[in-house]
Amino acid sequence: KTCVTWSDCRHLLTDPAFFGALSQFQRYTVESIFSRAKNPKRVRIGVVDQIIDGDDHCDVPIDPCDKDPYQALCNYKDQVDVYQMEAPLAVGPVFARHFGHRLYRGEYYAMQSDAHVTFTQNWDEDIIMQQESTKDEMAVLSTYLTDIVDSIDEKTGKSLRFTRPIMCQTDYEQGQQGKYLRHGSQPEGIPSIHGSPQLQPYWAAGFSFSRGHFVVNVPYDLYQPMIFQGEEMSIGIRGFTIGYDYFAPERSVCFHTYAVGPNAAKRGQVKHFWENGARYKG
């Protein structure tokens, strides 16, 4: 059933039925998912690890578990499933995320997140309550995440932001093979609608939260190699035409480390899938 009040939803905060898909691994992303969850034992993470020779394997913790057993990859190692592939074979984010969704095992909720994302304290409780407040079985909460800078209190893990990013600024951009659609976000502001996420027309790959059936009913099209923007159009249109509704969350439960400002140099060292573009013609 759809929850209406807090008491109706309380059982959802204890059942072990929460799946999150990451198409690339960053240790601090997984650490924050588990360490800041209200109910970490009900969270399962599926990771598609795209590596090259010399990379650390993502299922190996930073420190040995006998030295620091409280790391997420030690304390919750049985709740992290990893599919490892050679980075040159990833042929873009769509193919990798297709494998990520293949790791879904029927959990009640499903979430997709970019790498380089840090979650807030009690994020799982917050996003569930937001999703259920829509009173919509087909609700999908999705947005382009706000930058991490000045967004999270490092001591408490709580969000310092009170704005809501909404996807309603889409236009055509000129590319080498012609124009293509690109989504954007309007300037962030304090939500004028309180108590519920806000309807919006589009879906974002960087963050998506829904009932688990969204992953099954709107699967990734694995035949979209070397495409960066196209996945959002494909999934957004297919989901909408079979009844799903897209919402901008009222409150952000995670923030993205973008390659701008103080994080530009660090993020600039990260490899990109288009470095292998010459291997795949067409």
From TrEMBL:
Protein name from the UniProt record: Uncharacterized protein
Database matches in Pfam families: GlcNAc
Native source species: Ditylum brightwellii
